[in-house]
Design brief:
This protein is α/β, with parallel strands linked by helices. It is 33% helix and 12% strand. It folds into five domains: 2-54, no CATH class; 72-167, no CATH class; 185-295, no CATH class; 298-511, Spore Coat Polysaccharide Biosynthesis Protein SpsA, Chain A (Alpha-Beta Complex), CATH 3.90.550; 516-598, no CATH class. The chain contains 23 helices and 17 strands. Helix 20 crosses helix 21 (543-552). The termini are far apart.
Length: 602
Amino acid sequence: MKMRRHRVFLLCTVGLCVISFLHYYKALHYVSLLRELTAPYPNIKSFIMVTGFFWKERATPLSSASPEEGPLPVLRPSETRPRVQEGTGGMRAGVELNMAGEPRAPQPWVRPEEPQHKDPDPEKEDMKMIMWQPSSAVQQGMDLVRSNAPSVVVKKQEPQRASTPDPIMRLGDLHKRHFILQEDNKPYFIRTKAGALCFRQGTEIVPVREDSGAGKGKPTVAGVLHRNILQIAEDSGARTKLVEDSSSTRLKPKRGKRLVKCVCRSGWHGPYCGVPTMVYHSNLPTKERLTPREKPRRVINAININHEFDLLHARFHELVDAVDLFLICESNFTAYGERRPLSFLHLLLNGTYDYMRHKILYVFLDHFPEGGRQDGWIADDYLRTFLTRNGMGRVRGARSDDVFLINDADEIPAREGILFLKLFDGWTEPFAIHMRKSLYGFFWKQLGSLEVVSGCTVGMLKEVYENDGIRLRRREYYTMPNFRKYENDTGHILVQWSVGSPFHFAGWHCSWCFTPEGIYFKLVSAQNGDFPRWGDYEDKRDLNYIRELIRTGGWFDGSVQEYPPTDPKEHMYAPKYMLDNYENFRYLLENPYVKQPALSGG
């Protein structure tokens, strides 16, 4: 009996030690243990990462087909020559992709610069990227890599180091410039002759019909779509009898009974018709206390960019009216620690993003964090920490009540939700966003939604999170030491809420949404911590295997999820810009490897 009691006591002690160790390990990385353990299979690393603790140097508990030599070419950042022969001999996909001449990961996106070794004329090179078309830049550009493969292999001698037009040579002080936030003076609200203050985009506007009184109650446009462009609403306002309220006389309306009401369009709610459906159906606890602001907030959106260029264009067009500044961070290292070309900088300098350049502040991360090779989460966290601290440190004129929003490049918030945050007082912080989840393209819609803590005010970012974006995304605000002081100083009680709901999406999360070549690049660039690291497996890097994953919606572990049926015509299927340019983004809107009867084009 005594032996049995000792055995039970020993087992309990060991179990307690294991749980304490796991909790302590996760606490070091600002990740909630319970949330990690209940996450879906792509994030199941809680137990596997424990094994990495005992093998710190190699981090290869899950090796590729060749147990020792396989992962090494990917693990080590040897830049060119030693990897040329290993890559050509050991990769089936490498023959088609032609990643042999240099480190494997950067090759697909450095291809537009390859002709620079043959043609020294820089003007011709710049013109090659100015004619940008969203899908062709990814699909046709990748095909170009394969079709011209022999020429890249022949040109082995230092393809990047000897390149004079390397974007970093033209960087100058671009990554050190400051950005002065300007006031947003656009007339978002209008006042009727009866005195009602209404949000212009969300209000039904009655046109002047002097010849016939029958049309008095008709809206300006019959069957107005839910997601109208802001400019269209502004133009239609000029043809109405509404009198715009000047900024000097527009005061916050008093609470109490309203004698006049705004007539809301479909998809807009509240006494001012300024609350979109995604907020109306959210868990915001202060909906009855929402009031329009006299002066709009400025919104700062921070992201780290790798090669998600199609999604970046969609983000810019979706948020052009809602965001005042985009902080975009690019590194010349992959999350795995290998050198890579500055592809976004190249596009920025050659004019591809001129339509949005006045709102872009470029952040350049020129080093890789110590310890990032052994533990990939160190590198992953550091990217967001550097982005926030460097970027916000160069912003001038920000107020404490301006909005800071941080996303991954594959997370695109919807315009309406961000406009609400910009124009209304009364919501609490921090806030998360419910996003529509999809895999490989918007055609594989995953069940539920992705809820990501994404933003707060600039004041809370500074005082509570110490200007660290990763703490905003991964730390509960009440675990931060200064949250109580911030509440006392501002008089605001912090309550986390989410824009949208699992049934009313407030954005899109398109995971692994690339061509097969783009997925290959992501595989070999992935950080050394999100186990299993599929880029270490040669068969997972095969382009034909990747195409089959896209066709079936399967995952790298061989599993296939259940997907609900989708239709490009459904609400919140994809960002509006992509749907408006359907042909350019067809590879993300329709499954390119399913026979044509599956989905009809736009």
